[in-house]
Amino acid sequence: MKEPILQMKKIGKSFPGVRALDGVDFEIRSGEVVALAGENGAGKSTLMKILGGVYQPDEGEIFVDGEQARIGEVSDAIRFGIGFVHQELNVLDNLTVAENVFLGREPRIFGYLIDRKRLNSEARPFLEILGLDVAPQTPLNVLSIAKRQLVEIAKALSLNARILILDEPTSSLTLTETDRLLEVIKDLRDRGIAVIYISHRLGEIREIADRVVTLRDGRNAGVLARDEISHDAIVRQMVGRDIKREKRTDRAETGDAMLKVRDLRTSRYPEKPISFDVRKGEILGFAGLVGAGRTEAAQAIFGVDRPVSGTLEIDGTRASISDAGDAIANGIYLVPEDRRQAGLILEIPIRENITLPALARYSKRGLVTRSAETDVAVRMSEKLKIKTPSVETPAGNLSGGNQQKVVLAKWLSLEPKVLIFDEPTRGIDVGAKSEIYELMRGLAANGVAIMMISSDMEEIINESDRVAVMHEGSITGILDGDNASEESIMKLAVGSV
Amino acid sequence: MKKELGIFVLLAVVCGVLAVLSPEFLSATNLQNLARLIGIFGIFSIGTGIVIITGGIDLSVGSVFALLGVILSILLVEYKVPAALAIIIVLAMTTFLGLIHGLLVTKVKIQPFIVTLCGLLFYRGLSRYITDDNTKGFGNAAGFETLQSVATGSLFGIPTPFVLLVVIGTIMWVVLHRSVWGRYLFAVGRNETASMFSGINTSVMIASAYVIGGLLAGVSGIVLAFYTNSVSPSSHGNSYELYGIAAAVLGGCSLRGGTGSIIGIFIGTALLQVLQNLVNLLGIPSSLNFAVMGVVIMLGVIADQVLQTRNAK
After folding, report:
1. DSSP H or E segment with residue A363
2. With an 8 Å Cβ cutoff, are A328 and B199 in contact?
3. Does B198 touch chain A if contact means CB atoms closer than 8 Å?
4. Distance, in angstroms, between B224 CA and closest chain A CA?
């Protein structure tokens, strides 16, 4: 067996009050894809940030090519051939593809002027390796997120990266884009690059990883070789227990339509009216590729993105909704896709986040009653098992899963009739995911109509009573739970009949 | 509270030093003058602070003072309009200007800096045009002595503008820190998108901040006009908007929005006026006035930054 290109030995790192890493070992060989798994807060990001030179370890040693490497800052990491593609892309969308690839290292004329010709011609080979079929002079802002990500990978390759860290690279990609990226990764692996792949999507890990290294609570929780990798095995190591992961069988008898949407035309697809019903006690999954118009439909129903036309009926009564306030008054609530930007105000306490949509309930004559607020915040955070020292903690200090619970708490403290989830478990660890599914099922059992938009196929298939599939603004089909399979959904999602 | 403590300490230190260097600082006359100025500046600074909490800015205040001053003079002196009516007209005007600013920011989506910069230029030019650049005054104030006493008089030895500031400050404290409106305002300033997704009408919230800013500028402006007793259209209120912004920033209002407090703005205003007083009392050339203020504000903000990074660690 080849010598590892990278070895991290007994890495320890503490932050005030938290032991983030405790004696963690990690190694990878050239031409190997190692998936790094673990719940949020398990230490994956910290370990990778140490490798990338963002953090300094308190203890432990790093060896590159068998030689001890001191990685004091990001430039050291680059010198050792470590390329880091962060979850939030670090590309500038006011520059071209080639300018991004060579940012800070542009070929020059006379030492001051940028040599555009060479800039573009030197960028081309890296784009070709990645199968990125855009011209080097294309402005980045016309590219999809998937392509921008490839530009970032090209940048890493142009820095002679031999170890490539990909942190949640598929979290905002469509299914086809994900498949494309996985192909690119396989190709890079065959070219001898060591790829460290961080993802919550166990299906991708299963497909691509040669080895899975799992962290739990800042320690090594186990390693799985290629032939041992399975969904259950990874989850068991991540959470240290078995989690049931199966298609829900407790499908409630669904009632009449709670929400009737007729001829809704969103501003993005004004020429494509959509109509559908969500019944009481039903989870209606919304599948489709990114950009299929699912989020737009949800935001139109919730009133934040005013529809061009269309009618809504809630529990048999016609509702006119021109802003989110109207939707909320009608019992329609949205758990948005972008939790950190639209779902929560990160800097303010959990209490204030929870009471924000219905502050009038916790106030007298326009003045807020603090004790009433605290009561409901404490009650909701106990009910939803939000892990926090107090309800006065800023929402931004919580982990992704707990943040999502705060968003839910906002709505569950009211009386939801229709609850729309847009990517409810994106970036959320396995443990919190199943808690959110529990909550969703509980709500449905109480007669709430649930619309669940998701790009996670397992989630759609396991959780939905029916699945509506959208393609370029139209609903191409609504499948019964029994008929919803990956193939049947994909067929409708790509628009082929 | 912690946030205001730093600036409060700074204020106390400056006052202490000044009291030692110049005994006159603690004289009744000086303290009364100081309180009067803090009153006048504090009232509109609260308005500026509220606008800044939404993530906006108001550059038009100084020019609004000039426009309001000349109109007030024309109404009272030339048209003999009853004082109460004149005040209502002027307050309605500045409130309306605030509303226009608010609508331009929220409906036409122009950046607050641009909207109020245009206001700054437009109102100044307008005041100079209507007066033909002639200074307007209130003469011996025959017929509106009560009005003038609001600016120059005292209640139980406390200058009326200061009393006015305490009253308005208390009301605005309740509104900003205890009411639903205040909570929404901070929420919108922190994160407009998330506020919208929580059902808050963000446009109404932001526009209302400019409306309140306009109203408070009107109140301050009326007091100021009677305090100076003459309004020179080209210089009256010049760069006063910067005092408001400086007071708000010193008092903990981030220009990014979402933070700030009435107490902080109050202390910030007081600090600026004490500094001005310091320049006068210590015989520092008054041309250095702005330089002293610039340095102290910078030091205050740096100290705040340092404290915050230390707290974050």
Report:
1. strand A363-364
2. yes
3. yes
4. 32
Count the neighbouring beta carbons within 10 Å of the beta carbon of residue A496: 9
| Residue A166 sits in the same domain as residue A271 | no
Enumerate the residues of chain B whose CB falls inside 8 A of the CB of residue A343: 194, 197
Tokens 């929404």 belong to: B184
Do A232 and A290 have their domain in common? no
Task: Decide if A345 and B180 are in contact by the 8 Å CB cutoff.
Answer: no
The verdict on residue A187 lying in a domain is yes
- Among B241, B290, B225, which residue's Cα sits nearest to residue B63? B241
Which among B183, B200, B313 has the least Cβ separation from residue A368?
Answer: B183
Disruptive mutation site among B171, B179, B197 for chain A (greatest number of A CBs within 10 Å):
B197
pTM confidence score = 0.79
Q: Alpha-carbon distance A458 to B195, whole Å?
A: 32
In a shared domain, residues A264 and A216 = no
* Beta pairing class for A332-335 and A418-422: parallel
| Residues A179 and A269 reside in one and the same domain | no
Q: Which residue of B has its CA nearest to A351?
A: B183
ipTM of the complex: 0.86
Over the range A133-165, which residues count as b (16 or more CB within 10 Å of their CB) and which as e? eeebebebeebeebbbbbbbbbbbbbbebbbbb
Q: Are A131 and A275 within one domain?
A: no
Q: Is A250 inside any structural domain?
A: no
What DSSP state is assigned to residue B30? H
Which domains occur in chain B, in start order?
2-312 (1.10.3470)
In Å, how far is A415's CA from the nearest CA of chain B? 15
SS3 B231: strand
Q: Is A343 in the B-facing interface, judged by CB distances under 8 Å?
A: yes
Q: Which structural domain, as residue segments, surrounds residue A424?
A: 257-493
- Contact residues on chain B for A357, CB-CB shorter than 8 A: 198-199
- A287 plus A220 within the same structural domain: no
Longest CA pairwise span in chain A (Å): 75
Contact A197, A205 (CB under 8 A): yes
Query: B152: which 2 tokens?
Result: 């120059």
A339 touches chain B (CB under 8 A): no
Q: Do the domain assignments include residue A249?
A: no
Chain A contact for B187 (CB, 8 A cutoff): yes
Select from B190, B196, B198 the Cβ nearest to the Cβ of A347.
B190
Residues A163 and A77 in one domain: yes
Does residue A118 share a domain with residue A192?
yes
Q: What distances in angstroms separate CA A180 from CA A37, A90, A177, A204, B85, one per listed residue?
A: 21, 21, 5, 12, 73
Is A367–B180 a contact, with Cβ atoms under 8 angstroms apart? yes
How many structural domains compose chain A? 2
B79 touches chain A (CB under 8 A): no
Nearest to A417 by CA among A265, A305, A255: A255
Residues on chain B touching A302 (C-beta within 8 angstroms): 197
Tokens of A432: 């919190």
Q: How far apart are CA B45 and CA A37, in angstroms?
A: 53
Domain of residue A400, CATH code: 3.40.50.300
CB contact under 8 A, B195 and A16: no
Query: What tens-digit pLDDT sequence spans chain A (497 residues)?
Result: 678 999 999 999 987 767 889 999 999 999 999 999 887 668 888 899 999 998 999 999 999 999 999 998 888 999 999 999 987 788 888 999 999 999 888 888 888 888 889 999 999 999 988 888 899 999 998 888 888 889 999 998 898 899 999 988 887 777 788 888 999 999 999 999 999 999 877 788 889 999 999 998 889 989 999 999 887 788 788 777 554 456 665 555 667 889 999 999 998 889 999 999 999 999 999 998 777 889 999 999 999 988 889 999 999 899 988 899 999 999 999 999 888 899 999 999 999 999 999 998 999 999 999 999 999 999 999 999 888 889 999 998 888 889 999 999 999 999 899 999 999 988 787 788 888 999 999 999 899 999 999 987 788 888 999 999 998 889 999 998 888 887 788 778 776 54
